[in-house]
Structure prediction request, 883 residues.
Amino acid sequence: MKSLIACAVLLSTAAVAATPAFAQNAAERTYRLDIPAQPLDTALLQFAETTGLQLIYSAEVARGMRSPGVKGEVSAQAGLQRLLSESSLVFRITASGAITIESSKSDGKTRVMGPVRVEGAEGTALAGVNGSTDPTATEGTGSYTSSSLSIASKSPQSIKDTAESVSVITQQRMRDQNLTDFSSLMNQATGVTLVQGGANGTSTNLETAFYSRGFAIGTIQLDGGAPLATLLSGGDATAYVPLIDMAQYDHVELLRGADGLFNGYGGPGGSVNLVRKRPLDHGQVLVEGAGGSWGNYRVMVDASAPLGFDGKLRGRAVVSYQDQDYFYDVANNNHTLTYGVVEADLTPTTVVSAGFSLTRQDAVPWSSGLMRYRGGASLGLPRSTCLCLGWNRWDFDTKELFASADRILNEDWSIKVNLTRNDQESHNKYGYVAGSVNNITLAGPALYGSMNDYSSVQTLADLTLSGSFELFGHRQQILLGGNWQDVDGGGQRRYGTLWAYPYPAINDVFNFDRNNLAYREPGTSEASYEYPAYGQRQWGLYTNVNLTLWEPLHLITGLRYGHYEYNNTSQSLCTTPNVARNVGGCAVVGQPWPSLGLTRTLSSGHDLSWPPKVSLVYSPAKDWSAYASYTDIYVSQANYLDVDHSPIKPLTGGNMEAGLKFEGFSGKLNASIAAYRIEQKNFRNQVTETNQDLGDGTWCCFSNGLDFKNLSQGLDAEVTGEVGRGWQVFAGYTYNQNEYKGADAGTTEGLPLVSRSPKHLLKLTTSYQFQGGEWLHRLNIGGGVNAQTSSYNSGTVCLAFNPDTGVCRPASEGGGTASYEFTQGVFAVFSGRIGYQIDSQWNLALNVNNLTDKVYYQTMGTASGGNWYGEPRSYMLTVRGSF
Prediction:
């Protein structure tokens, strides 16, 4: 921790020292300003008179705009940023010290600043908000919406002209709502339902699955590159686990629905694009310290500055440290982030960057959550209950190297390359309690143990060539590209149970004593299974064409050719010498079993998809657009084999959607509403009498073509941005109905795909910056609510397992099953925030979550486990500085 703080101090010093001389003289000199809220042109005139600085701008750009004013001892740069904060204008400082103010350029699709031109020096090839070269950047805008995003198009495009349901969670929202980790951020995204503890709710408290439109969100991109393989995109322990600190990201883009054109194989739930922070063209240091309920402490330093060559070389570094306890006992998460990136203008039209991030986590996890009575009734345990053990541990590291290059070839064409190597290593050992509770005897739960070592190395590459040309009297746009994903999970080891059967019984979960000597940490067991090779590979070539045949009407379509491979090398290891298993035995611990030795399977498939996506966009007026779209669905089933031991075809289907979008107030407000229908089909059908586990991650024998499909349909609506001076709003509403359909659906016909996902989901947050007054203009207040209708879960629970086979014992042997069903009723969770701008550099904010201290289940599991309470009322006090 000391080294991280020392590094942050050095970065902060470098950021200030690296600021060019002209910026030191013109921008960092402080002035005492007292400019009230008023029309922008008169505010700028008063600013120029007070500072003596030369402002160069056209009277047209400021006409009709207002300024919130500025008061206090501030630098010229900070004061001017405040004056322009409610406009779409940006400013640049020339070598002579003059300040130019200009409007953002707009091509009707995205608002992108023109190239930086500093007098006496060349500027950057590309430019975005606040001196970033990313045209989609949101830092410094103070807005809850964005002028552009790239998740559905690979190039900057306005939300209004994107023919799919998309959302952006901006830097301002992340700061206002204290969204410091990926799970808390996704919990505030439109239409997303969280399942804590992973896909089935029975993994650790640190793992979370995300669902949209009844399907898992399984695709994560970094800076719009090739998709990472995640646990929810068909991967397993080799896949990416999104334990992410958000300090390294500028904003997050979310697409709801399928995106098979750019992401290849993946489900129809949606995809996420994490957009990294880039270096700025000026010196900036951000510091943050926070403390909150249950011992949750966090510090962060973010420094950016030009490093040399007249600003052509820039750098940025972020370090953060968080030590977090939870509202339930014992569990803890301690993690650090180190992020660095350098960026260079090789030519006036070429920008290259390279960087790294390192996240280290040392946690005491809680696995499996709470159980229920056998019939499904809640145990009513206090929210502080944690059926976990103090010796639990999970060491988890994520290392990432990345590089990119953007080059403008000419006025019509540009090319971009995006490379990422992601390496995750995990070592965990923990005991957990699972099993339903007998209503009378309170018996049933037992103590189980898990121990695993695994690593996942993913290599990702993405190349795009985009351009435009004249055809039919209109400007047409085309994008050509390809991406590559290689996942290597070799070296993974799984260990046997930590306790011998019979497992330690928990006869009374209401008085769980984690210090009981029977629950003390057992010794390390021997590895029972090993994967020398375990991974997947996919690549694809794609093209996307945006045709204008008639000026208000646009046709967007594309073509994709994809290839997918799955490979697995596994071996069962000896844990007890000289004990026969199937045929023969083993003599040495760790030796592969002769009968269960090395097995390798390679499955592959090629698919030519047209059209993977087709859309019509009609713009009857400048601020409005209506669209209809269709997107293909492909989900690999390559590890399921037919009678010839060849992989069966993927799941297929389509995502149909129609909607209306609005962009108002010069891009400061975005609104959308869409109706959708998703069908997923081509499910596997078992053609042999038994389901054969071939021992290498593959199963036999299956075919495609069941009369069975997953159906999801509903409505999305969202409003984001400024609805009045100083008033930012985010509101997202979704209605979803999902179910199993078809003659082969059997008893599941008409049942929901994800019963734990509510039909109606509302998320709202708002922030208001007071105007005028000597002290009132420093005050900011906000609040929000997450509300949903009821959801439920049902099924059967085994009363006793055979420890040797893992199969449920029959009732005649003391086993059998019991049915359960339970419901989480309608609930709403409210939040509040108050912020105060102490001076031009320091801000203090208090966030309160779950204002009414509502008791509810964030995630419903089964009667045996996977039930997690929502967080009680909590407080977080944050102080932020900007220099």
Observations:
- Residues 2-17 form the longest helix (16 residues).
